[in-house]
Amino acid sequence: MSARDAILARLKGPSPDQAEADALLVAPERPAVDEAALEAEFLARLALPSVNASHDVIGSMADLPAAVARYLAGQGEARTLCLPPDPRLTACDWGGFTLHDIAAPDEAAALAIARRGIAETGSLIFETSPAAPMLPNFLALHHIVLLAVRDIAPYLEDAPLTGPQPRAHYWVTGVSGTTDIEGTYVRGAHGPRFLHVILLRN
Amino acid sequence: MSAFTDRADAALADPILKIAVERTAGTAEAKRTIAIDAFPDFEAARTRAAAIKDHVIAHLGPYLEQFEANAVAAGAKVHWASTADEACKIVIDICQAAGAKSVARSKSMLGEEIGLPHALAEAGIGRVETDLAEHIIQLADERPSHIIWPAMHKTREQVSALFKAKHRSPHVEETIAAMAQSARRELRTQMLSADVGISGANFLIADSGAVCTVTNEGNAELSLVPPRVHIVTAGIEKIVPSMPHAIHMLRMLARSATGAALTQYTTFYTGPKRAGDRDGPEEMHIVLVDNGRTKMRDEGLAEMLRCIRCGACMNHCVVFRQIGGHAYGGTYPGPMGAVLTPVLDGLAPNRDLIHACTLNGKCQEVCPVRIPLPTLLKGWREKSWREGLEPTSMRAGLGLWAWVATRPRLYRLGTTIAVRVLRLLGTKGWIAKLPLAGGWTRHRDMPKPAAQTFMAQYKKARRP
């Protein structure tokens, strides 16, 4: 008997009742979010020490390169950027920037578009696709994220997007951190040390 | 003296260990308290989390089949292993078929449980532990002492010395931040050049075939995205019906483990790289591991399968806080480890481990899935008694006590004599030395008993 058959033989039982599984999710306990003030709620979570992200606000996509330049200048970084092959990003005027679309092992800064922002936790939701590689967002020292205000949703339950599952669906709620030495928190363990969110408000 | 008693004695005599454990566990306890106080109705959330896990455990077979079908449809290969050895063999075979010289491993307690580090070494495959604590443990050639903070037993001074001895370009400044940067420099190139990435799973999502991992360091993603092959080793109890079920468990996990609302990085992997994707592995393998879990379900330990490996029970355990994790001797330390170790390593060699508990119930109070850990430990004690594993002196002593206790007159006579004798041994309310119980009074005094037994006082009080 194969291991599969042996395990399943021991676990024989009735198929789960979908209604029973759904009933387990009725009115879940979760932190309260003021759904009338999602942007403020999201920004409040983003500023918590546990998330520790900075933010900027722009009115249109045309303002994006200037916002990125502003952030990099503030951090003392050159205008060098890993830009994913997303037409919404590549269509911007990046004059004055040095761009590349493959992240270097010691990448300084990468820009990405979040599919959604979650007010409950200040999380940014990403999905992989040919236009949205995953690795730059983990290699870069500065993780810069564009998020449309209309894409802010209240709860983590709003994170799953409809349609076919991507290869990877991931939530970023802060920077790479560790408490592995004596429980002391340190930023920039393996991945980004800085997270900067640019909110698109139109 | 048994192996456990020897280890516990050595741990108690180690002053540095106590400092190291207290620094991390103390912080974790304080942070969890703040997080739980800020959460609306955590008690109801615990009940819901337990109900979700119980539902899954009751329908584990069908859910596993659903997960398998969805994972395969997404392009992953699903393997099944009844034992630790089978699981390791599957992983090694995949690595060898891929021609792997090195693997990057993201911390997985299941990997530790099945002995994967050892199996990889035996197969001559290089292993890079990418979680900072696991990296420390690997450099020190030790085992994890905690399931969330595997290097909890190390002080910053010890880590500093280790990195200076082993890193190519170690830190200069004596700060924890500088030490973490030293590890970042050391590990990044190794992660990016690994042939295979190996992870565990925090959750397996039945209705999508996705595998969920959580980290604060982002090391899982850096270990699993660049290599050509991603191997997941997961216990079969990690299944949840859907992503919303996982979301509830994630809320419980992060708060119970570190006091955070959520881990920094939470990723759901569904199959290998898709057409046109710029990164991601070409192959994804998922090894579903039983290793005693079906037996636990059938033999009275089903509640233990609720465990989501948060570590809250050990952070709040008075015994763990004194002796640290290594003294437990198994893969899993603390209260959950004391229940699991007899399953994984046998009851006979762990007879004394199941007694190393005060039954104060703190672990059960903080468990996010309401595992009745003290009750399960008592179950092991009863089994140990039934199977004749308790020492002859204990059996004879308890037998004698039971014989006397079922004869009330004799019992009262015995206690009356005992009280008088004990009072003769005491001075100023305390007994400093007690014949036949020298082990007990060596470290503390025993209170001198009252002048009369309880029954004598009770009868006297009832007299008009």
From TrEMBL, chain A:
UniProt superkingdom: Bacteria
Pfam families per the UniProt record, alphabetical: LUD_dom
Domain LUD: 114-200
SUPFAM superfamilies for this protein: NagB/RpiA/CoA transferase-like
InterPro entries per UniProt: FTHF_cligase-like_sf, LUD_dom, NagB/RpiA_transferase-like
Name of the protein this chain belongs to: LUD domain-containing protein
Originating species: Sphingobium psychrophilum
UniProtKB/TrEMBL annotation, chain B:
GO biological process, one term: lactate metabolic process
GO molecular function list: 4 iron, 4 sulfur cluster binding
Domain annotation 4Fe-4S ferredoxin-type: ranges: 303-371
UniProt domain LUD: residue ranges: 64-289
SUPFAM superfamilies for the chain: alpha-helical ferredoxin, NagB/RpiA/CoA transferase-like
Chain ranges of the Lactate utilization protein B C-terminal domain: 399-459
Keywords: 4Fe-4S, Electron transport, Iron, Iron-sulfur, Metal-binding, Repeat, Transport
Protein name according to UniProt: Lactate utilization protein
Organism whose genome encodes this protein: Sphingobium psychrophilum
